[in-house]
Amino acid sequence: MATAQSTADSSSLGSRDHLLLFFLAAYALTWACFFTVASGVVPEHSPLSTFLLLLGTFAPSLSAVWLTAHSQGATGVRALLERIFRWQVGWPYYLFAVSYIAVIKLTAALIHRAIMGAWPRFGTEAWYVMIVAIIFSTPVQAGEEVGWRGYALPRLATRFGWAWASVILGLIWGFWHLPQFFLHQSDTYGQSFLIFMLQVTALSVAMAWLYARTNGSLLLTMLMHASVNNTKDVVPSTIPGAHNSFGLTASPVAWLTVTLLWVCAVYFLARMQRSIQQSALSIQPMQHS
Question: Are the C-beta atoms of 171 and 197 separated by less than 8 Å?
């Protein structure tokens, strides 16, 4: 009995160490790449800066694949990457993934109109351009999603449960984006980082719910990630010319978006507490003695 307990404790410790190493590796590679560009060491818009930004974007998944290969070998890597192609889920989940942030933003616009008596600023991008952008952007999101949802989320869930894991991961995921607020070419430059953190953490909850409900489909979280990036400006939240990333100054649309995202997040948290555990059993990380 003592031997079995010792083995279980050792396995748990190893899993915890790997998860911490994953976060450290993802942060280190991303921040090194992004801050190199943000500091001006490498000129923005140059081929090298483009490479560094792309490498930094893929850091979470590169870290996840590296650690999985180290601890589980080729079999573990195949099991992790196979989730990218897990497409056989119900069509309502595809609709949810594609439309979630757009519905949130349009609802915020309606509330803005009802409260303030005027419509907020709307984006000028054509809907078909957004669709094309989502299609081409979805594969790129594997650079993050294999790491955040594929590797980290199930491991956090085994320790904290799906609800708490989604919030914890949201905070880590949100803070990982910090260098983008120093990049002049980023649409987050000068915007409120605290508002961004609130939005991303709430989005993490919705994406965790989607991931668990689709039996660990990274394809669906990649699709949702791409849709968020490419439809969020149907009603822009940014303040043109803003220069205070660490204040709470934000547009009314941004505050309404945060509120609506968290109203939905509370619902998803409650749902995950009640019913996700059973459907998510098959997406737990592989265990090794």
Answer: yes
**With a threshold of 0.85, does the pTM exceed it?**
yes
Judge whether 26 and 60 are in contact, CB under 8 Å: yes
The letter for the amino acid at 241 is: G
Burial class (CB in 10 A: 0-12, 13-18, 19+), 127: exposed
Residue 212 contacts residue 272 (beta carbons within 8 Å): yes
Q: In this structure, what token pair is assigned to residue 238?
A: 């940014």
Q: How many CB atoms lie within 10 A of CB 49?
A: 20
Per-residue pLDDT of the chain (289 residues; tens, 9 = 90+): 433 333 333 344 356 668 999 999 999 999 999 999 988 888 878 999 999 999 999 999 999 999 999 999 999 999 999 999 999 999 999 999 999 999 999 999 999 999 999 999 999 999 999 999 999 999 999 999 999 999 999 999 999 999 999 999 999 999 999 999 988 888 888 888 999 999 999 999 999 999 999 999 999 999 999 999 999 999 999 887 667 778 788 899 999 999 999 999 999 999 887 755 444 444 555 444 3
Rounded distance between C-alpha atoms, residue 98 and residue 112, angstroms: 23
Distance CA 183, CA 206 (A): 27
Structure tokens at 60: 């979470």
